[in-house]
Design a protein that fits this description.
Length: 192
């Protein structure tokens, strides 16, 4: 029995490590191209959905103070949700706002019972079939740039591996958005 438990633990650790490595690879693969900001944000939503094994993702821009929260990109979102998500007041009551304000990954394991969000936000996401979320803030040159909001159809527990992948996603996305900004500045100079 002891050997079986040891083997099960070793298999579980190996499987976790494989998922983390696959997540790192997918993030790098999707975000390694030099793209304009809009394309980079869509690629970021795709990378987040795939590497964190979500059902769909949204990228939220703004800081809630000088720049109102707004929807910048989505990946595999349910029909009609994008227009309803692009609401500064509603986004200000989401975990994306908490992640932006605190500058760290924020999770919601059970959306229906999470008291940190407004009833309107929870109702909108419940209509979209969301049971859990993870919000990953992205910084560019030390300043807040966006938050990636990954949505899941069921309540779930987030483990260390998801947090490690989310941290890698934030770092890689920051570098990709910095490149996108350089591309945007270069194309402006070429037009002048």
């Amino acid at each position: 029995a002891s050997l079986a438990l040891h083997n099960a633990d070793a298999y579980s650790a190996h499987t976790r490590q494989a998922r983390i490595q696959a997540g790192f690879y997918r993030i790098s693969q999707v975000l390694s191209s030099s793209l304009a900001r809009t394309q980079t944000l869509t690629a970021l939503a795709q990378a987040a959905t795939e590497s964190l094994d979500g059902d769909w993702s949204a990228v939220i821009g703004g800081d809630g103070t000088t720049d109102p929260y707004h929807l910048e990109a989505c990946w595999q979102e349910p029909s009609g949700i994008a227009a309803r998500l692009d609401n500064a007041e509603l986004l200000g009551t989401s975990i994306a706002a908490l992640a932006a304000q605190h500058g760290r990954v924020v999770t919601s394991r059970d959306l229906a019972n999470d008291e940190r969000m407004s009833a309107d936000w929870k109702a909108l996401l419940a209509e979209a079939g969301v049971g859990a979320q993870i919000a990953v803030p992205v910084r560019v040159l030390g300043s807040h740039s966006a938050v990636v909001l990954v949505c899941y159809g069921q309540s779930r527990t987030f483990g260390d591996e998801e947090l490690v992948v989310a941290g890698n996603l934030a770092n890689t996305a920051g570098a990709a958005l910095e490149r996108a900004g350089q591309i945007g500045r270069a194309s402006c100079r070429e037009r002048v």
